[in-house]
Amino acid sequence: MDPLAELKQTFFQECDELLGALEQKLQLLDEGSTDPEDVNAAFRAIHSIKGGAGAFGCTDLVGFAHVFEAALDHLRSGRVALGDAPFALFLRCSDAVSDLVNAARNDEVAPVRPDLLAALEQVGQAKAAPSAAPAAPAADAPPGIAALGNLLALVDSKMGAPAPAVPAKEDDGWDDEPVVAAPVRRLGYDVRIKITPEADLFRRVIEPRVAIGILPAEEIVSVACDLSHVPPLEALDVTDCHMRFEVMLRTALSAEEIVSKFDFTLANEEFEVEVLADAEIETAPAVPAEVPQSVAADLSAILARLGPSADAAPEPDIHPVAAVVPVAAAAVAAAPAAPRAPVRPAANDTVAARQRQAVSVRVDLDRIDRLMNLVGEIVITQSMLVECVRSLPYDVYAKTAEGILTLSRQTRELQDHVMAVRAQPVKAVFQRMPRLVRELAQTLGKEVKLVLEGENTEVDKTIIEELADPLTHMIRNSMDHGVETPEERIAAGKHPEGTIKLIAEHRAGRIVISVTDDGRGIGRDRLLAKAKSRGLVGADEKLAPEEIDQLIFAAGLSTADAVSDISGRGVGMDVVRRNVESLGGRISVDSEPGRGCKFTLALPLTLAVLEGMVIRCGDDRYVIPIASVIETQHLANTPIEHLTFGQEVLRWRGEITPLHRLGAVMGSAGTRDENIIIIAETERGGNVGIAVDEIVGQQQVVVKSLESNYGTVNGASAATILGDGLVALILDVDSMLRLAASGVRQPVPELKLAG
Amino acid sequence: MSLQLSEKHFTSAQPESAARRIVTFRVGDRTFGIDVGMVREIKGWQATTPLPHAAPHVRGVLNLRGVILAVYDLRTAIGLGSTEATATHVIVVVDVEDKTAGLLVDSVSDIVDVPVSAVRPAPDLERDEHGLIEGLVLLDTEIVALLDLAAVIRDGGDNQDKQLRVA
């Protein structure tokens, strides 16, 4: 992959995370959060997306994000009160941004949303008027140019000298917080801010005018630009920033507040805030607010003079997040007093900030898989060692055994850690659901609140990926069939707004995910009638209410009267069941008519390692997942009945349970001598007896795919490698039963009944 | 059936300089070859785990450094019955259509460079080998049959009862 494509890939990955954060923060705000940090985080997210999008030339995305950002900025600056903000609109906009990101990712033409754009622009217009902040006289010039012009004019007039270094920054119209020179005399004290940006300022996609523009324009007394650090033209790299600024501020803001204003743009070591005494500074002359029309012309002249390198856009940092990581504001005394030591964030804060940037590393999933494979190898090698050591003479054995014991403990630990690396919070899937619910609610005309719980429950990455489809189906099902329309709900004496709860939790070594709605529940009569009309249930068959509920998982059944976009084709829940079962999980439903419905998914935590019982049949060994085993018992003590066609059944806990001889079903080599019956559970909740020769042991086994190099094997879900390096098949009880039923099996040998 | 190589088998559009590097191996008294690029490694016989109800030429699966791959008995595939595998037998590990597979043979003999023009199309064998042979190469002393590995793995063994008769 060429480097740019790779960077782009990284950008889109980050977009996904940023969009998640954006949506989450907006949701919190919508629910009444008043934490300014939530607003800031949302703003930062959209700002970062915009920054990256600009770098990769996604113009549609930049355009939309820009308007969105501007609207959010009104919140951030307090021009629009949090209580008045249209968060529903913002949430829809975040969906639209997500669409635009996807379109950009797939090189498709993005859908333009003029309706949303217009609504967003309204946010600023309608609310800005009553606020005290002066409107930005952007004039007719493009906003970016105008703002830059403002800055130039400001610097120019206050220094009394031209400021030719600014054009090194090519303007692309990203940020247009205008610097407006309209000094207003107000109470406060004078503050000198020295800005000494690092040379890579532009490459971090920060512009000086943005940094300075964050200060309240009316409080800026003067801005001076120190160009003494600009190297001779031949040594000049226009992507480096050589400017130093000194901003005089007469303000009521405390030093901390000023420091925190630079959070977004400047690193702590790049600026100093110095509080001066009241009287020390003479009021600077007022500066014309109008930008001379000539500025733009001057600018292009300067750009032209700088030659072709001037259009070398500052290399964008592909980690815009890093560039805007909020720096903890240093605790600074704010009382206005005589000249005091420059306020500078403590050094260890900077270190802490750096450390925070380094807490996570992006790693290719393939590498983790390879690591996992290696750990699996070590587990196998170690069990091989254990077998070798047994044959050593005693004195050597004792010493070696001790070492091996330590090794096995460390291996188990290593395995746990690698598994933990693969583990990811289910949040990755959960955070897609609010959007789904929002969109469906709009389509269906229902009011639904989605409650997420246990988003931080961690599951193996492979499972996370497979969860999205089943969950989407389940939520759609609840939205469409479960939750009623507001009118129906009111008539039923419920709150007009329905609630769907999506909960993830760990339970007994599995992850359990439930989708609960407070809707009408499963319409059993209709479901049963439908099932009968399709011949899934005999016309005279009597089913328990719970059994009827389970019919929802049968193929081709839907109780919806009309087939809609959302559901109703009856391909939903049986697909969900199949997906879940292919992951080694189970799904069940509990319904209470009129009160709601609860779907529960139980999945293994990982697909990579499972606890298995190693058994032997003839010469062959197999592994049965412990999760399927209910009980083991001696064959000799079990009463067995023979039915026709060689079918055997046994009585177990008062029930008739079919018995299969594993060796016969799987065609094991060697002579068989069945001694043990394993009672196993099938996916449908039934039980089956499996006769085997011997239980060899119980151990963790590493699951290895048979499909990748061979194909599906009837009766087995996968394979594993045992301590002696040989392969053993991992039995899939249901698949084994199908194999047994297909009749492709060897004749059942005469039954040996002991005693 | 006797194998008559007619004149047209010798003509080829390929330039003389293009050469194929072939690994040759023996099953019984027959010599087979595959392109060296397909061979990942060659290892001694190792016990396999049989798969339930697999085709006869599928010997089972084995563990090659943590990867599970199926081993195919070439002798069974060409209809000469099952190999009594011993320590002297060899598994040629090959890459076929993005899968890795093992080919059980008697021994690996040589690596030879063969001009592309010397590869003749497989004669139209009526009943044998079911298109398992992609082409033939005449070396000094023997005929090397170039295997179509994908076909060997896919449907070798269908003709288990048929005897190979190439004069």
UniProtKB/TrEMBL annotation, chain B:
SUPFAM superfamilies according to UniProt: CheW-like
Alphabetical GO biological process terms: chemotaxis; signal transduction
Residues making up the signal peptide according to the UniProt record: none
Pfam families assigned: CheW
InterPro entries named in the record: CheW, CheW-like_dom_sf, CheW-lke_dom
PROSITE patterns registered for this protein in UniProt: CHEW
Every CheW-like domain range: 19-158
Any one of the GO CC terms: cytosol
Matches recorded under PANTHER family: CHEMOTAXIS PROTEIN CHEW, CHEMOTAXIS SENSOR HISTIDINE KINASE-RELATED
Name of the protein in question: Purine-binding chemotaxis protein CheW
Organism annotation: Bosea lupini
